[in-house]
Specification:
heterodimer; A: 218 residues; mainly alpha; Rna Polymerase Sigma Factor, Chain: A; Arc Repressor Mutant, subunit A; 2 domains; 0% strand; B: 235 residues; alpha+beta; 4-stranded antiparallel sheet; 7 helices; 4 strands; 10% strand
Amino acid sequence: MKEERFGLPTQGTVAPGDKRISEDIRDDVLLRQAAKGDEDAFTTLYRRHQAAIYRFALRMTGNAWASEEIVQDVFMTLMREPKKYDPERGALAAYLYGIARNRVMKHLERLPREVRLDDQNESAVHAVAGLTNVVTPMHWAERQERMEQVRAAVLDLPSEFREAVVLCELEELSYEEASQRIGCPIGTIRSRLHRGRALLLAKLEMLRDVPRRFSAAR
Amino acid sequence: MNCEQFEAIGLDVDRESASGIDINEHAAAIEHANTCARCAALQESWREARVELRALRDATSDVGAPLRVEMRLRQEFFARNRALKFRRFALASAWLLASAAMLLIGMNWWNWHIDNENLSLVGDKAPVKANPNDTASATNVTPNPAVAAVDNYPNEPANESTLIAANDAEDFTLLPGSMAQEIGDGSVVRVRMQRGALGDLGLPVNEERANEWIQVDLFVGQDGQPQAVRLPQAQ
């Protein structure tokens, strides 16, 4: 088991004494087994999808606690109502992402925009602290600061632009994949991403005292 | 391509994943960046931002939900599953009990029904005890009302009023010249004959009704000769 870093465990953490289910089994088959009470099937499903959902939630909220709650909520929903998932309508990952997205949006609506999310004990900035290739403490500090600026700039974006930036720039999904996840046309994704990038650049340039080059008002 | 168009698609030039821009637009964007200093600076600025975004992505690429989330979920799953199993067991037990009760009720009803049917059958077929008071009239070969009914409708099927030969010596009228004897010494035979035939046995017969068919019980002695006669009672 990998060590947790600053309270954020790395992917693939396994509880001791767990049985392993073949990775080849399809999600819908596992879900059916889980619905019948197979705990191992449910655990396998959880381990298969939790990291992606957690990362998305973390990148959207910037709050490890909130992301944890969102992941828990998503899988509780799956546990309570497994029949709501229809394999014919799409992959389980997309279904779970849809639930996670709703939870994230609700979380963002609840929180006042002024609250600094990184004030929490286990904020995402600490999650990125485990950097490799750090030459000197000063270099580390500069890099940390830059990363923090980027993270703050991303978190400052309005939620729909932030989502487009997270999906297309951080998750590196294609426009088509992102549009499928969000459930909107590709044109909307392009437009949101364009606005998001413009705002992000404007914020970063403002933070670094660089003259603005992007017409963010478009 | 102008600056506005470049702002729309120019930043996708470096994208690795599909961005939807075609080769011509891609070439035009690069060409415009080479000629326009502002757009080139914008592109450069975005590249820097992108590097930082990637650093942020890489730093968070291997994070996952803490183990405690999995533990909580598994605990919840276990609890729910246990409750579900208990509920299923309770439901199955309830159904089983209800089925058993229904089966028991059904069996009882069936038994009751069968018993009732048997009782009514026995009641239908039970012979009517001969009324000792009718002996005198029988002796005079005067049919009692039930027998009269048979006499009046001799050709009717016997299912309306069943005639049953009682295996006793009551109501028998000794034929002329016969000696009184115990019933054990002979047997009772039910025969169907014309009323006129009674005359052959030495009994008085109404000539007007001599052709009517009647049933009579003959007490046949050991010698095979009829000793007594009786008109059976209708039920």
